[in-house]
Design a protein that fits this description.
The chain has 428 residues and is of the alpha/beta class. The chain contains 14 helices and 21 strands. It has helices spanning 33-44, 61-64, 77-84, 86-110, 128-144, 154-157, 180-194, 257-263, 296-299, 308-322, 366-382, 388-391, 402-407, 409-422, and strands at residues 21-23, 26-29, 49-52, 68-69, 117-118, 120-124, 150-153, 168-172, 176-177, 197-199, 204-207, 211-214, 218-220, 223-226, 243-254, 269-273, 280-283, 288-293, 330-340, 347-350, 357-361. The strands form 4 sheets. An 8-stranded mixed β-sheet has the order 7-8-6-16-17-18-15-19, with helices on both faces. Helix 1 packs parallel to helix 11 (366-382), helix 3 crosses helix 4 (86-110) and helix 4 (86-110) crosses helix 11. The radius of gyration is 21 Å and the shape is globular.
């Protein structure tokens, strides 16, 4: 099986590194979906922008991702309400929805060719317990807040998903899928046309009171926006607040129409389950099955891709268990490390010593990351601040300080995630 990222294709983009000293209005660090969105929003307001990226735009978690464009990420709507209360939880859901619409609007406005696939979201229950405690609660929460969703039991689910192993599910619309690498590359080209100066192959070595320094040059600016997701700690930002989880993606050979109907008898959907280490899948515009997941041992691994052989077996077994009549061949399998905070909420703030340096990360989902990029652009230009308290890296976490350092990041984040997402579901 090919271990390369399917979206990248056979050739890597040519890069132009920074090899001089520049002055600009804002320097954006990071060429993923958050950094590109931030640069795009700033340039649209007439701000002079320079963007610097370590590798090439879309090379990191954004470009490796599944392309699920849904406000659900590691936390569903009911999780947000339980963790933050009705008003703030809904505000966070709307924040993620704004990211969905920003990406959709950008695709339309710039006519981006990125395998845009309108697909509803479907979360399915792996057990009767999950149907009662997770799926039904999520449906009630959607209804209580005025969001439309459809609740399926085991019998009715068969009309939309060709598996008899799930116990039910919740479906809602307004979501879509895409090739996120193609989106990032097209957005990079668009901001260059806007006048943004983009330098790839240019790792930022340090932040300074004046701006940033790379191996080949420097950029001086009144404001710096650092949107490097899991790499924030490498620049001394959110050091105890950002780590990563690992997920794997596999993509199949192109399926025949009757094979796709084995999975989806009707509409094509974006699906994920209620397992703690959940699996997720969809059909691409080429008719390939894209399936993702991990196992518990690999989720917090420091070495990217180290569990690929084991996870390949897990993903193959998942398909054969839920769709036993499907003879599936997986052609590519790759992994990516996704920035996360201990409570799964994003992180955003300002450098303790350099107040002109703004940062954001740990979006754990493309819409959240796009919304974070827009949020930082708004903060720099107009002082946006309504979610600063929620996103603050100094907010309260169950494990931080010396217990975090004693346990290590991997163990402490795993424990924190279990409490943030799963402990309330185990209560009587």
């Amino acid at each position: 099986m090919d271990s390369s990222v399917y979206w990248y294709g056979a050739r890597r983009p040519q890069v132009q590194p920074l090899n001089t000293s520049l002055t600009t209005g804002v320097v954006v660090v990071g060429g993923g979906i958050a950094g590109l969105t931030c640069a795009h929003a700033l340039a649209a307001r007439g701000v002079d922008v320079v963007l610097v990226e370590d590798a090439y735009c879309g090379a990191g978690a954004s470009g490796k991702s599944s392309g699920f464009i849904t406000p659900d990420s590691e936390l569903e709507l009911s999780d947000l309400i339980a963790n933050y209360g009705a008003a703030r939880g809904q505000a966070l859901w709307e924040f993620a929805r704004s990211g969905v619409e920003r990406i959709r609007g950008t695709i339309s406005a710039l006519a981006i060719d990125c395998d845009y696939q309108v697909q509803d979201s479907l979360m399915v229950a792996s057990s009767n317990w999950a149907l009662r405690r997770v799926i039904a609660l999520e449906h009630r929460t959607h209804a209580a807040l005025g969001y439309h969703s459809t609740l399926y039991d085991r019998a009715s689910l068969g009309a939309v998903l060709g598996s008899r192993t799930y116990q039910g599910g919740i479906r809602y619309g307004g979501t879509f899928a895409m090739n996120a690498f193609a989106y990032c590359r097209a957005l990079r080209d668009a901001i260059i046309r806007q006048g943004v100066r983009v330098f790839e192959g240019s790792r930022v070595l340090r932040l300074t009171p004046q701006g940033v320094e790379t191996a080949g040059g420097s950029v001086t600016a009144p404001a710096v926006a650092v949107l490097t997701d899991r790499y924030l700690p490498a620049l001394g930002l959110a050091t105890d607040t950002v780590h990563h989880i690992q997920s794997f993606l596999a993509i199949s050979r192109p399926l025949e129409g009757h094979e796709i109907r084995i999975i989806f008898p009707g509409d094509r959907l974006m699906v994920w389950d209620t397992d703690i280490v959940y699996k997720y899948f969809r059909i691409t515009g080429e008719g390939r099955l894209l399936i993702g997941g991990a196992d518990l041992r690999s989720m917090y691994s420091e070495r990217e891709g180290g569990a690929s052989a084991r996870v390949s077996i897990v993903l193959r077994r998942h398909v054969s268990t839920h769709f036993p009549s499907l003879d599936l061949e997986l052609e590519h399998l790759w992994s990516g490390l996704i920035g996360v905070s201990p409570d799964f909420a994003p992180v955003a703030g300002r450098h303790a010593d350099f107040p002109r340096v703004y940062f954001a990360g740990a979006g754990a989902g493309l819409p959240w990351s796009a919304a974070l990029g827009a949020y930082l652009a708004d903060k720099i230009t107009s002082g946006r601040a309504e979610l600063d308290e929620v996103f603050s890296p100094s907010r309260s976490f169950l494990i931080r300080g010396w217990p975090l350092h004693l346990m290590g990041k991997a163990a402490s984040f795993a424990a924190s995630h279990g409490i943030a997402k799963y402990s309330r579901r185990l209560r009587p």
